[in-house]
Amino acid sequence: MADSISFFTSLPEDINFKIASLLQVRDLCALGCSSKFWKQLCFSDSIWYHLLTHRWPLFRSPLSPNLKTWKRLYFERHIELGLRAVSVERFLKACSRNESLEVGDYLQAFEIINGARFGFEDIQRFLFKPEMNVLVNLVGVHYCITNLGIPGDNLLEVLRTCEISNRHVCVKWWKLGRWIYGYRGRDELLFRWVSLADLATKENESVLGVLRRGTVLEVLRVQISAVGHKSIPWSYQDAQ
User: Where is the F-box domain (predicted)?
Assistant: First the structure.
């Protein structure tokens, strides 16, 4: 141990800083407890400022950094976003009826995430859990595509790692009937059964467009559900 510490102390400070900054937070804290040398580096404000601004580039602290350490601000931000994610999950559960959700409630949940300025790492940590309702996963996928601009291949890889890529949702929307020769036809019911992977790769970009717009213009109602695939009539699978 002493030999390894002496080796690192002989390295330039910026090299040790780079090594520490590449670690996961849990590993960084463990390393900081291993010796006085690593404690001084791993718990320094410069390291935690780097971690905070890397994870949340748009984060701006309302308080002077002199009043709080960057390490404390990092963990406060982490805890805050974890609580926001829990509130989204509870909100969607309260609004769901028979595993179905109206688009107005869905977009309200989306705005909670947007208002808190979640980063990609936050979405992975808090919304991409396989034990969660798939509607929560869906909000995370939607946010990553539209607000974070995550490339499809990167997002798909993360979905697979989190074991949620093959989870499905059914999106239904009712369109106002068309006018033909002065008469309005019947309202149309359209729907798609899509996986989260499909949305990530934009194979069903029209579905994402419906979720973004909600009930506008000719769309009377939009409903998202996590019902079983077998409950959808086969005759409607390819409805346009």
Answer: 5-51
Residue type, 238: D
Cα–Cα dist 120/163, whole Å: 17
The secondary structure element, H or E, covering residue 189 is strand 188-195
CB proximity list for 60: less than 8 A, separation 6 or greater: none
Pairwise pLDDT comparison (139 vs 25), residue with the higher score: 139
**In sequence order, which ranges of 56-127 are alpha helices (DSSP H)?**
70-95, 103-116, 120-126
Q: What is the dihedral of CA 13, 15, 17, 19, to 10 degrees?
A: -150
The two tokens of residue 111 are 């705005």
Q: How many residues does the chain have?
A: 240
Rounding to the nearest 10 degrees, give the CA dihedral for residues 100, 87, 152, 78. -170
**What does the pLDDT look like over 37-92, one tens digit per residue?**
878 888 888 888 888 988 888 776 655 555 578 888 899 999 999 999 999 999 99
Give CA–CA dist 234/193, Å, rounded.
11
The domains found in the chain, sorted by start residue, are 2-73 (1.20.1280), 88-236 (no CATH)
| DSSP-derived 3-state class of residue 10 | coil
